[in-house]
Amino acid sequence: MYFKKSLLTVVCALFLFSCSNSKADSQTAITSSSLAVSKNAIETQNEFVSVSNKLKDSVVNIRTKKTVYVNYYNPIEQFLYGRSEPRTEKKESGSLGSGFIISTDGYVMTNNHVVNGADEIFVKFSDGRELEAKLVGNDPEVDIAILKIQSKETFKPAEFGNSDNISVGQWAIAFGNPLGLNDTMTVGIVSAKGRSSLGIEKIENFIQTDAAINQGNSGGPLVDISGKVIGINTAIYSPSGGSIGIGFAIPANLAVNIKDSIIRTGKVERAFLGTELQDLNPQLVKQFNLSTSNGVLVTNVTEGSPAEKAGLKSGDVITQLNDSRVNSASQLVAQIASLRVGSNISLTYIRDGKTYKANTVLTKRAETPVSQAAAFSGLSLKTLTKQDIQKYGYSASMTGLIVTGVGSNTEAAKIGIQPGMIVRSINRVSVNSVEDFKKVYDSIQKGASMLILIATPNGSQYITLNK
């Protein structure tokens, strides 16, 4: 009996000793794990601090001033005398945005909508210095503008990364001036890439991020964990106007191509493929006997274009550009826009169920002569044709200029002018050609209000638009 009790005591002691050691080992493991996690967190934190230090002298706040002339009448005069002489009042307006230095001699990149129509532009640095800048050139189709600081100082440019190499899930860090709060940095990830068909810009291939982007962030850089610019913050999706984690940035490679063209020539030289494209739908996939909906349908090929030289025909389905898969027409347009004139490209396409590859060289997109089309205060106009009348359902006697495009975030867009509407007169002068419109337009003082007669298939109405 004594032996059994002694044996039981020894077993219990060994068990307790084992438990004690296990507990100690467990605590040691937890402590080691906590130290490792803590160390990783601190290292990540230090990376963010490093990015902030790297960009602080390159990111700028942008302030603009614009003079506008507003027509008004005196209601008291109208009441007392039955009439009131029209008056013009001069007012100043402005906007706030963001940008970043892209060269040591003071070139700055921002969004076109930040500086569009500005009479004066100022850039402010993190140390409080504010310098005047001038617009060098812009690209409304992508929403990029290039400024030049009026100073002989040497500046610190941000470094561009390769936006083609980004991955969904990687860090994305946004810099800018949201809601007037200078030198703000927010952190998130790349939520998606290749976003298009959103109706934000004419050419879209956005990087989507959940890094907080708000009003005033426009034009600021979106950078990776090494501090290299991968995008230019441009827009957000938000029912409330504030960030809900869905922001969009222009890919750096597209912006760099535009930047180089503007600085080199003062204008945008867009690469040209020469195709009209259509997105695929289930019906077209069935009709063309395709195994997938990936790709875009070629509906027309311009004579003598790079596409024709590559052997493309109407009815072909382009599935790949170089090493990138093509998912939509707007995506392919943006991919071409990100390439330089003279670039060699490879196209993969399907014809009659067989896959082909072809190489071609992108040429420069022809500039449209002013007699055929031109842009004024956010309105792109061209001479009305019989085809336009039939397409939009106007009467055969309709005259004027047809609206072919409306700049995003312009006054024209805000008051509801849309492609397909017709401009019949400006300041009560009838216009039947772009030259007619330009002659009157050029005689109007900048910032002054213009009276424009707009027609739709349902009727006509006068609107006012500031030059």
From TrEMBL:
<feature type="binding site">
    <location>
        <position position="113"/>
    </location>
    <ligand>
        <name>substrate</name>
    </ligand>
</feature>
<dbReference type="InterPro" id="IPR009003">
    <property type="entry name" value="Peptidase_S1_PA"/>
</dbReference>
<dbReference type="InterPro" id="IPR011782">
    <property type="entry name" value="Pept_S1C_Do"/>
</dbReference>
<feature type="binding site">
    <location>
        <begin position="216"/>
        <end position="218"/>
    </location>
    <ligand>
        <name>substrate</name>
    </ligand>
</feature>
<keyword id="KW-0732">Signal</keyword>
<feature type="domain" description="PDZ">
    <location>
        <begin position="262"/>
        <end position="353"/>
    </location>
</feature>
<dbReference type="Pfam" id="PF13365">
    <property type="entry name" value="Trypsin_2"/>
</dbReference>
<dbReference type="InterPro" id="IPR001940">
    <property type="entry name" value="Peptidase_S1C"/>
</dbReference>
<feature type="active site" description="Charge relay system">
    <location>
        <position position="218"/>
    </location>
</feature>
<feature type="binding site">
    <location>
        <position position="143"/>
    </location>
    <ligand>
        <name>substrate</name>
    </ligand>
</feature>
<dbReference type="Pfam" id="PF13180">
    <property type="entry name" value="PDZ_2"/>
</dbReference>
<keyword id="KW-0677">Repeat</keyword>
<protein>
    <submittedName>
        <fullName>Protease Do</fullName>
        <ecNumber>3.4.21.108</ecNumber>
    </submittedName>
</protein>
<keyword id="KW-0720">Serine protease</keyword>
<dbReference type="InterPro" id="IPR051201">
    <property type="entry name" value="Chloro_Bact_Ser_Proteases"/>
</dbReference>
<keyword id="KW-0645">Protease</keyword>
<dbReference type="InterPro" id="IPR001478">
    <property type="entry name" value="PDZ"/>
</dbReference>
<feature type="active site" description="Charge relay system">
    <location>
        <position position="113"/>
    </location>
</feature>
<feature type="signal peptide">
    <location>
        <begin position="1"/>
        <end position="24"/>
    </location>
</feature>
<dbReference type="InterPro" id="IPR036034">
    <property type="entry name" value="PDZ_sf"/>
</dbReference>
<dbReference type="GO" id="GO:0006508">
    <property type="term" value="P:proteolysis"/>
</dbReference>
<keyword id="KW-0378">Hydrolase</keyword>
<feature type="active site" description="Charge relay system">
    <location>
        <position position="143"/>
    </location>
</feature>
<dbReference type="GO" id="GO:0004252">
    <property type="term" value="F:serine-type endopeptidase activity"/>
</dbReference>
